[in-house]
TrEMBL record:
Entry protein name: LacI family transcriptional regulator
Classification via Pfam families: LacI, Peripla_BP_3
CDD domains hit by this protein: HTH_LacI, PBP1_LacI
Superkingdom classification of source: Bacteria
Domain HTH lacI-type as annotated: residue spans: 11-65
Organism: Microbacterium suwonense
InterPro entries in alphabetical order: HTH_LacI (IPR000843), LacI/GalR-like_sensor (IPR046335), Lambda_DNA-bd_dom_sf (IPR010982), Peripla_BP_I (IPR028082)
């Protein structure tokens, strides 16, 4: 039964020690998961913790152990699918490892904003830092700071030594190769924003796969990750004479499908389309979208492992997977 008489003041270690009949030092060892505590003593302390409703103060814990069991996350572009899925996956992986997440959202347009967000997380005594860094300027800000704790970057396309990444170039080559394998020779690319490292890597993979197959460079149309930009690009792509399109993300592919349909162009009969990300709705597009799947859960697991378990500093990029659906067919012209 939970005791409520102590609610007039905060329940402390002294109260837990009195209830369990042990010293405060023993309570501290149990709470900090010290191995040198007898099982029956540990059980008495944990029972007292539950009965009294004691809550660990992470700041006090950090003072005593130099560990807050909290991972800081600097989140940028959190409204976009990749970063948002990564943030969710980091929290899940951290919880599985017995850690909490403290997240700060920062606009990446200014160095001061990113710096202030990192300083805020460091001030909370976090044990490690995950920086969702889709822009080169964020990496530059990190390089200029003396952070002093383990740090991992995500969504930087593996551009720095701290980074963990899904292999963006390989994913783009899978998408482009899928279209070439279907017989397409004039393949367009609906590209992401120029200031995103992953967009740059996907465009590079597109060009590399065409070159490896001896195909002429296809037209490149810039988008901004949104379905609206994909819709706006449909007329340009239709006029280009391309029979296939690799879209740098699924949202732009969704807009492209709608725009082509409005122009009387059928997918995949007239134009084939491959996306990137495998968003949950991609299987229900019309037609169901062939796309490249990224394993955000594995990426988050690796990031948390590196911070918590002192995992290896070097890690191979996570391999993407091509998901075949109905939006690709051989060309009819």
């Amino acid at each position: 039964m939970r005791v409520t008489g102590l609610r007039a003041r905060s329940v402390g270690v002294r109260d837990v020690a009195a209830r369990a009949g042990v010293s405060r030092q023993t309570v501290s060892r149990v709470l900090n998961e010290h191995p040198d505590v007898a099982p029956e003593t540990r059980e008495r302390v944990l029972t007292a913790v539950s009965e009294l409703g004691y809550r660990m103060n992470n700041v006090a814990r950090a003072l005593g152990t130099r560990r807050s069991r909290t991972i800081g996350v600097l989140a940028q572009a959190a409204l976009h699918y990749g970063p948002s899925r990564s943030i969710e996956a980091i929290e899940s992986a951290a919880r599985s490892a017995g850690y909490w997440v403290s997240a700060v959202f920062a606009d990446s347009t200014g160095e001061d904003t990113v710096r202030e967000a990192i300083e805020h997380l460091l001030g909370q005594g976090v044990d490690g830092l995950v920086v969702v860094a889709p822009h080169a300027r964020t990496l530059q800000t990190l390089d200029a700071m003396d952070i002093g704790i383990p740090t991992v970057t995500l969504h930087s396309a593996g551009r720095d030594g701290r980074g963990l990444a899904v292999d963006q170039v390989a994913g783009a080559r899978l998408a482009t190769g899928c279209l070439a394998d279907a017989g397409h020779r004039r393949i367009a690319h609906l590209a992401g924003p120029a200031d995103w490292l992953e967009a740059e890597a996907r465009q590079a993979g597109f060009a590399q796969e065409l070159a490896a197959r001896g195909l002429a460079p296809g037209p490149v149309v810039s988008g901004d990750w949104t379905a609206r930009s994909g819709h706006d690009a449909s007329a340009i792509i239709a006029e280009s004479g391309a029979t296939a399109v690799f879209s740098a993300n699924d949202q732009m592919a969704l807009g492209l499908l709608g725009g082509l349909r409005e122009l009387g162009i059928r997918v995949p009969e007239d134009v084939s389309v491959v996306g990137f990300d495998d968003v949950p709705d991609a299987a229900f597009y019309a037609p169901a979208l062939t796309t490249v799947r990224q394993d955000f859960a594995e990426l988050a697991r690796l990031a948390v492992s590196r911070l918590v378990d002192a995992g290896t500093d070097a890690a191979e990029p996570v391999a993407p997977v091509l998901v075949h659906r109905a939006s690709v067919a051989p060309p009819q012209r």
